[in-house]
Design a protein that fits this description.
This protein is mainly alpha-helical and 303 residues long. The chain has helices spanning 3-32, 39-71, 88-95, 97-128, 136-148, 151-164, 171-197, 200-208, 213-242, 245-250, 258-268, 272-302. It has a single domain (88-302), classed as MetI-like (MetI-like fold), CATH 1.10.3720. The chain is 81% helix and 0% strand. Helix 4 (97-128) runs antiparallel to helix 9 and helix 9 packs antiparallel against helix 12 (272-302). The radius of gyration is 30 Å and the shape is globular.
Length: 303
């Protein structure tokens, strides 16, 4: 067979193959030349999303941005814009014994509630992790119920319960109720950490080697569940410190939390001390976000 005949037999297939390759490369060439690119719709979509989200973000952030200037007002009443910059509202806040006692009581209630939520939520996450049994969904629903039930209904039920137990009027019922409210947040975060971080083979290996339950809990479960417990505890701290409905139902003469004190002051006195207490809420929220970001960054480095 001559080379010309061989080329005549091979050329039709090679021509088809070259044509298909050129058609496949055509979109990439057009994208390189700027023709047929999909970037402009994406950019316009992002721009429209930012334009739509900006008023919502401004509406959410504007009250927080107004609170601090109102707390720095020289006037004896809350007003915006402030007359002049002064720190007398914070000095009045720290000099008022009732406000200071309510602040310390709120920290006491919140810390106790966070401990209750961490123990119950983390323990429930460990107990239910990797297990399947009849009624597990019902049990998880019961744990998540404090988030689903309206707070007013939960507060009424707690009021009737603690009234029967003759425990109303102290800070302990408020702390227990806030602990129940914080438990679902810790449970969700801890369950997520266990699902993503814990290797079930480690648990089986530790048990097969004769490790005690306390050792398994501390050396196997705790390193995996710790990020979730810390994140859920921060959320529980924010929810408990800011909660007013449960504390309003369960309060007593010597057990008035800071949110309840602020709510009562809004009704009867509009002094800058209210803005000072609100600035404290804002500062605590910023501190909680900073701690959560540091914890997430540290966890990422360790992983």
């Amino acid at each position: 067979m001559s080379p010309r005949a061989f080329s005549s037999e091979v050329d039709p297939g090679s021509r088809k193959e070259n044509a298909s390759r050129q058609r496949a490369r055509a979109p990439f060439r057009s994208n390189r030349n700027g023709k047929g690119s999909n970037r402009s719709p994406r950019v316009s979509g992002h721009a429209l999303l930012l334009i739509a989200a900006a008023p919502v973000l401004l509406f959410l952030l504007l009250p927080s941005l107004i609170i601090v200037p109102m707390a720095l007002s020289k006037s004896q009443m809350i007003q915006f814009p402030p007359e002049w910059i002064s720190l007398h509202s914070f000095s009045d806040y720290l000099g008022d014994r009732q406000w200071v006692d309510s602040t310390l009581l709120s920290f006491q209630v919140t810390i106790t509630a966070v401990l209750i939520g961490a123990v119950t939520g983390g323990g429930a996450a460990i107990a239910l992790h990797g297990r399947s049994f009849a009624g597990k969904g019902v049990l998880v629903g019961l744990i998540m119920m404090p988030i689903v039930i309206p707070v007013v209904v939960l507060a009424l039920g707690d009021y009737l319960l603690f009234a029967q137990l003759r425990l109303l009027g102290g800070w302990v019922p408020i702390a227990i109720a806030h602990g129940v409210l914080a438990t679902p947040y810790v449970f969700i975060s801890a369950q997520t950490s266990l699902t993503s971080e814990l290797n079930p083979a480690l648990v089986r290996s530790a048990r097969s080697l004769g490790a005690r339950p306390c050792s398994v809990l501390y050396h196997v479960y705790w390193p995996a569940i710790r990020p979730g417990v810390l994140a859920g505890s921060m959320l529980g701290f924010a929810v408990s410190f800011d909660e007013v409905v449960l504390a309003l139902f369960l309060q007593g003469a010597s057990a008035v939390t800071l949110p309840v004190r602020t709510f009562s002051a809004i009704q009867y006195e509009l002094t800058p001390k209210i803005a000072a207490s609100a600035s404290l809420f804002l500062a605590l929220a910023l501190v909680a976000l900073a701690l959560q970001a540091l914890a997430a960054r540290k966890t990422g480095r360790l992983s």
